[in-house]
């Protein structure tokens, strides 16, 4: 033990002497990582998690300044452990719990820089509910004509896109073909609708695999239609329901250009609304949670002929993404521009 410690100490001394000699060497070339251009630092920081960005900002003043560059926060990914701390649960063991102090500090620092919100809950739906409730409250403070706290001014004002992917498959098995669907709703859906009401400048909205009941799906976009009827450009609604339930709201956005929707959420009446709209690309998307094509009836050929006549620039894209050998639901007389199969057997 004595010899090993002495050898280690000698190595440390030699290493420090070598570093000192490098510092004294006038010909030693130092790297210039601290002088990277801003557009390169933005690309690097955008691939890091919030924790990694914080540690990187402690490196030097240049990287500290890069932490607050606008494009670094172009997309804010929210998962179960985002801005959370581990807490022991007697039933499930250690689970991530949202840290309200860290969330508030984060929103106060970079809330005015966030341009996109991407929610991907897996297990802890309560964290998503609390996150959406707090950021909605901050934006509601901005909307007040007077009395808004100065530190919350501008929080969430730049958000242009919202993506919400619900983990609807609660199957315990890791087999890709095992499916046990549970939809969202209740207080979590209410918090999501409250957030969408606050986003008055939303250009892109994506709601995937919500699996709602019919009475909830019929009023899903009420708040979106009220807040951004004129500004929404892209709308993605995949598996809003697991049964046939047309969503009439999708034909009421006046400047909508790109629409992705599942076949069970459109019908002839929705197509009549799209015929008088500015939609240029309509994607009928089927994923692994969409009912089989045999369980959904396609829109009538008469309705598609009306769409082709009144909206000649509309292009329809049929797409299927599944872990099984799924079949695309064909649409007779539709102006189909592409058909994409993404299945293991195709």
From TrEMBL:
Question: What is this protein's name?
Answer: F-box domain-containing protein
Q: Where is the composition biased (Acidic residues)?
A: 1-18
Alphabetical list of Gene3D superfamilies matching this protein = 1.20.1280.50, Ribonuclease Inhibitor
Q: Where is the signal peptide?
A: none
- Protein source organism: Anopheles christyi
Q: Where is this region: Disordered?
A: 1-25
Record domain F-box: where: 30-76
Q: Which InterPro entries match?
A: F-box-like_dom_sf, F-box_dom, LRR_dom_sf
Task: Enumerate the Pfam families for this protein.
Answer: F-box-like (PF12937)
């Amino acid at each position: 033990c004595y010899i090993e410690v002495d050898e280690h100490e000698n190595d440390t001394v030699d290493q420090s002497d070598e570093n000192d000699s490098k510092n004294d060497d006038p010909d030693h070339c130092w790297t210039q990582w601290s002088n990277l251009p801003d557009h390169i630092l933005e690309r690097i920081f955008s691939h890091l998690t919030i924790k990694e960005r914080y540690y990187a900002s402690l490196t030097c003043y240049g990287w500290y300044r890069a932490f607050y560059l606008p494009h670094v926060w172009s997309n804010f990914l929210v998962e179960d452990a985002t801005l959370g701390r581990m807490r022991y649960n007697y039933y499930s063991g250690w689970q991530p719990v949202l840290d309200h102090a860290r969330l508030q500090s984060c929103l106060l620092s970079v809330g005015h820089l966030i341009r996109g919100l991407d929610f991907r809950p897996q297990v802890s739906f309560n964290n998503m509910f609390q996150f959406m409730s707090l950021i909605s409250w901050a934006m509601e403070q901005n909307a007040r004509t007077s009395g808004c706290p100065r530190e919350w001014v501008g929080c969430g004002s730049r958000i242009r896109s919202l993506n919400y992917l619900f983990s609807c498959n609660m199957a315990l098995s890791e087999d890709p073909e095992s499916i046990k669907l549970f939809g969202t709703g209740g207080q979590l859906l209410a918090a999501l609708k409250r957030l969408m009401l606050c986003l008055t400048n939303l250009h892109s909205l994506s709601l995937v695999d919500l699996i709602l009941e019919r009475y909830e799906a019929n009023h899903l976009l009420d708040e979106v239609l009220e807040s951004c009827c004129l500004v929404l450009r892209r709308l993605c609604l995949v598996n809003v329901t697991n049964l046939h339930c047309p969503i009439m709201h999708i034909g009421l956005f006046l400047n909508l250009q790109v629409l992705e929707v599942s076949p069970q959420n459109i019908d002839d009446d929705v197509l009549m609304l799209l015929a008088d709209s500015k939609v240029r690309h309509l994607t009928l998307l089927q994923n692994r949670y969409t009912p089989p094509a045999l369980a959904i009836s396609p829109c009538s050929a008469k309705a598609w002929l009306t769409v082709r006549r009144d909206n000649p620039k509309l292009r329809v894209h049929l797409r299927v993404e599944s872990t099984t050998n799924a079949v695309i639901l064909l649409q007779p007389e539709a102006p189909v521009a592409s058909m994409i199969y993404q299945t293991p057997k195709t």
